[in-house]
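Sample entry was shown:

___
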Amino acid sequence: GDPKASQLVRFGATRMVGGVAVTTVPATHSNGVNPAFLDGQLGELMKAAGISGYAGPPTGYVLTFSNGLVVYLSGDTGITAEQDTTVRQHYGAELAVINIGDNFTTGPKEAAWVMNELVKPVSVIPSHANEPATEGGKVRAGTKTEMFANAVQAAVHLPLSGRTLEFDGDGRCVAGC
């Protein structure tokens, strides 16, 4: 992305972007910054050395749309207490997009537990599986996506290339489902 178009926003802060309220929430993950985001000699030296810088704590996001829909974007994270206290209890997320890739984030079993026990959305979109998850618009057998979809209680909607999903203010898929 363009470093000049980035905005620094920390936990609990909200910025309006095109009519959508974007609020940061905690996540658990390492958080380096590409040297391209740093001006001057420091950025050049870091790039030449092949290193990144620490950018502060990692974040997830809660998006609030004008139709009332509240969406939780987990970002790269593990299980956190804030997924219950902040995301569900305070913001009331009805739709969640959660990473299920494992190794550096929640895996499919952990992500399903987060959805079933902590966030409790109406609908969920699995993401960041780190493997081909679908073929011909269907979930591939034996994938992390299949494992997640079988374990989660909320309606699961697959992110398929070229398809747009639309949700109402209550988190129910109304088009592209």
